[in-house]
Amino acid sequence: LTPAVFGGVTLIACLLSITLNTICLPYFILHRSRLSNALYIAITLNDVLSGVGFLPSAISIFRHLVPAWLSSDVLCNVSGLLTYTTPKYSIFLIAVLSVVRTISLCCPFRRIPRRGILGVVIGYAVTLFLWSFVPYIFIGEAKPRKYTFNLVSCVFLLKDLTFLRTHPDYPDFTVTIFFTRLAPFLMPGILIFVSCWVSVVAIYRAARKKPTSSTCSAPASPSSGSPIAKSTGRSRRSRRESRMLSASVTIVMVTATCIIFNMPVWLYHCNRLIRLIFRLDKTFNIYGWLLPQSESGAGTSQYAEIYFRVFVYVVAVVANAAMNPIVYLSRMRGILRVLMGTFRRTTSSFRKTSSRF
Description:
By secondary structure, this protein is an all-alpha fold. The protein has helices at residues 3-30, 35-63, 73-106, 114-132, 134-137, 171-208, 227-278, 302-331, 333-356, and strands at residues 148-150, 153-155. α2 runs antiparallel to α3 and α2 runs antiparallel to α8. The longest helix is centred in the C-terminal third of the chain and has 52 residues, at 227-278. The termini are far apart.
């Protein structure tokens, strides 16, 4: 694949992520009383910011040059903050959403503390945001800018931080690498895999259950013990279970989308974790069979390695952010109803305003 193809796909994904997530956001805000919709609000906002943050990277890959506005310290720092925090936060939010739905499926009568879940979500966001500000506090004197353009995006490197001894043998560097670069991707990934599997099994078992047949041969007064009242209660319970099952399928689809697009991300960071634990050099990688070999035959091609890193850190992230609203629109008919209602009200208001003139 050429840089133009990589950049074109990334650019389209960024624009779709910004547009479609913005379209879906009013529906979730309107129904924010549900915990799942409150989490969807956080996911859609994060995906919008992800599309905005990676837009310069998409242009950089597509045009094979550094966008002029990234020469500005302020814009480069803003883009760096977004590209650093949004991928980690996206995986964390999907993990929380998947775990909450799994608990609801397995223990339907268990009360999930809404404030506690939202507190964890907000606390994790604050933690990521504060860590992204570390370069503003500890920065090497040789680096006048906090985030600098590297490869295709604005980043900061751990070796530029003055309080870290950057040799891999020092434990403080190893611990920092694990908790800032590896754990935010790998630990939520484990929760996503486990909860997705449990949810799929629970949905499969629920779908195999046959609905209880109810027959009313003779009319009776609608008292609490009458056949009509029992049938009505069963019907309401059946509709409630059907809605819950449909919502669970939607969340499983969102989780599966996250797994598909983040599989290369987890593979890449698992490789980094193995290198870190066993002190292996950079020539070792567990995904070498996926990439073409160098002409000398000594390891994978350097250009293929760069392309894979760009795919992991940029393309896969924005593709996942663009695919999420497509799942919402295909599964949640209420989004289109809210969108059409907003369009009608806007059109009517515009007509009334124009008629006055």
